[in-house]
Queue: 2 jobs
Job 1
Amino acid sequence: MRADAQKNRNQILMVARDVVAEHGAEASMRDIARRAGVGLATLLRHFSTREALFEALLCTHLDTLTRKADELESSASADEALLTWFRELVAFTRSYRGVVAMMAAAHANPDSALYASCAAVHSAGARLLRRAQDEGTARADMTGDDLFALITALGWTVDQPSFAPRADHLVKLMTSAILKS
């Protein structure tokens, strides 16, 4: 990639993080381009769809969550690994308003730019859940799909202004429903 093209791409991503933090997943591509000091056509050359832009923004975080699951599998008790990872994923969804709906849609769509990253996160969560189930600390009637659904439901809920102040409490309620007492 040419140096000026790489500079534009980096500038677009930096600005997109700020705009998405302000306006959520429905942030205007035109606004991102304007704030980045590039034309909409330049933005679209780098990121042909909103999903492609979000994939570039999110893949680093999603990959980190996947690696974190790998670390937790070998360094923490099964229930603590699952809880720690669950909390970190919910915190991630809270940092990008509206992203949870995109993740939920991408999870079932192999053509989505976010599919591979979401599938890796889903798989990581399923492994942590299975480990906790094997040790008898998590409900046996849950699947990785159930866990992903609960995370997306919780992510959507805490995205709502009326529930946001109760996010930590809701995470505790949800995790207590996943783990056996």
Job 2
Amino acid sequence: MRIELASEPGGPRPNEDFAAAALPVSGQGGALVVLDGVTPPAARTGCVHGVPWYVTRLGSALLELASEHSGIGLAECLSLAIGRTANAHSDSCDLSHSATPQATVVAVRWGEESVEHLVLSDSVLLLGSDDGAEAVLDDRLARLRERGPVLESMRNTEDGFHTAGVDPGVASRAVTGTRPRSRVRTVAVLTDGAARLVEVFGACDWDGALAALREEGPEAFVARVRAAEAADPERTRFPRGKASDDATAVLVEL
């Protein structure tokens, strides 16, 4: 089994992405968790810890639950992890603040027979088979952008988009599914800062992205993203919210 990951901050701020994998001693499976922390729109968030602390706590809790409790579905694992993380700072932070730390989530768990997945918000999961790459997307945010500006007030609303914050119930909004293990050769995850090579710059499609990850590795893939960003520093050719964003790419060959 091959597992590689690369993660780089988009600038001088601390990296708000999280990525980790776990393999059981038995060698019968594994789990992968990737989070992309939401940069708060204001300096004050109600949380004394900050987004990097939040994604590390939530990601670690989710990885532990997903890898140690195979009988619990990934959505329930996420729900429990959100509740556990909220409890860890409810006494010190104002979790009712609209800018309390949030994150996108991708989780994958594989065993001898199946590969389970969960995607919440705009990070991208690629499942590679002999037929090519299948992109598993939570496209609610993309569909909102097609209709006009996306407002912060749309976050975690019925007709808006969803990210993991303090409400365990948001886990039910995630895109989930299961594939036979025999059909999945490769698993890859890209936070939106890495997926912009496809979604913003159009440098390749999802098949090309997966091929690049397999042939060159995640570190080289992130380097390609940085080169594309550097070629358009003013964001005139390729409009985007941030000139350079935190970028994480993970590859697992099963």
